[in-house]
Specification:
Shape: elongated
Number of domains: 3
Strand content: 15-25%
Catalytic activity: L-aspartyl-tRNA(Asn) + L-glutamine + ATP + H2O = L-asparaginyl-tRNA(Asn) + L-glutamate + ADP + phosphate + 2 H(+); L-glutamyl-tRNA(Gln) + L-glutamine + ATP + H2O = L-glutaminyl-tRNA(Gln) + L-glutamate + ADP + phosphate + H(+)
EC number: 6.3.5.-
Organism: Bifidobacterium magnum
Number of helices: 17
Largest sheet: 8 strands, mixed
GO molecular function: asparaginyl-tRNA synthase (glutamine-hydrolyzing) activity; ATP binding; glutaminyl-tRNA synthase (glutamine-hydrolyzing) activity; transferase activity
Distance between the termini: 80 Å
Enzyme class: ligase
Helix content: 25-40%
Length: about 500
Amino acid sequence: MAEKLMKYAEATDKYDVVFGLETHVELSTNTKLFCPAHIEFGGEPNTQLTPVSLGLPGSLPVVNETAVDYAIKLGLALHCQINEWSQFARKNYFYPDMPRDYQISQYDKPTNGEGYLDVELEDGTVFRVPIERAHIEDDAGKNTHVGGADGRIEGADHSLVDYNRAGVPLIEIVTKPITGAGDRAPEIAGAYMRAIRDIVRALGISRAKMEQGNMRADVNVSLRPSADAPLGTRSETKNVNTFRGIEKTLRYEIRRQAAILDEGGEILQETRHWDEATQTTAGGRVKSDADDYRYFPDPDLVMLHITQSHIDEIAAQMPEMPRERRNRLKDEWNFSDIEMRDVINADALDLIEETVKAGATAAGAKKWWLGELSREANNQGVTLEELSITPADVAEVEKLIADGKLNDKLAKQTVNFVLAGEGTPAEVVEKRGLKVVSDDGALEAIVMEAMEANPDVVEKLKSGNMKPMGALIGAVMRATKGSADAKSVTKIVMSKIK
């Protein structure tokens, strides 16, 4: 039965929204957090294993030093307090994809303590998201439910477990309760998650591909009657792995909880799951508190000692952060705020930068990636990065246009053939014969034929009315199958009517 929902505007007007995000970022180390098992996405199930990742008796964990350094990098980027001493703890709970029956995580002594991230919204507003900690832990495996609808456990005949992901290093970034967002809570949540994605990619510590599970978030939501009232009971929607899903989860939970509270009901503290098909959340289990996990220091792992000199060494290697990079490129490319926002929203910043580095103008690169190529990506249902064309290819097309070897129509045809896998732009142009007609004699003959076929247009041009010029250019284009250069056609026509 469908749950009762309050209109969003009414809900955010009646209640103060408080939310929080627990973001899991899978680190792109070569091996797992506590053992040398190799990590490879999409590998044959249950082949990337060691006795440690399977939790076999007598096996002992050893910390991956690279994973710790990655955590420090992220802590610095999030303005966190990097703790000199941190400790791994056992978080006890049973899931079939957790072979040890406990997770090795960090609790009261995380590597990264309090911090913050300033998030820039589309209208330029900057909202500060407070961070409680960013701790290190290992991931669980993956369940595959067979026989049910859409791979869900409901109605499944049986389940399969792949332990390849068990033991993969994660950083969990936990915000403090985020207040003061009002009706912009979903927008802020989406912007925050995109900012985290951009930061971990800039740092080179994660691929952050949500569709591959590299990054996902638990969305906590509660409502209270006013900003000075105690925090309300929260729900936690687990493992949302799209930006839109996170935004929609927030909107739905605000509307659902507001309807319950408005009728005098109570919010159940529980985990929930976002259903993309129905665009709703569904109840899971009653939410456990920290005490239920029976945290205690892992006796097999000593405390981590991170010296200030080591932090300083990593800090000296930090790359330019995404927000500063965007502002720099915006100025270098002479883009307006709206143009840069379009680039960011299209997730085309890296592609345009690489295209410019390959020799294209910023305006030309933007035209292709946000125009023809964006439409093609939408048609194929893929990201821009997944298209079968590279920034170097786009820059080559731009150069062919600048050299007068292609016009816009031929350039679009060239790009389409490159996307179809027919080779580089130069190879396509040569094989398909897509060059602009540059032989003055051949082009002049075609122009003369067009002028003879359109004497009325010629008379108007002779009288000084230049508007009909397009008719002659169009006739020449049809005759040359779009391979004529419009400027050359105009030049020839003007020389003949004088």
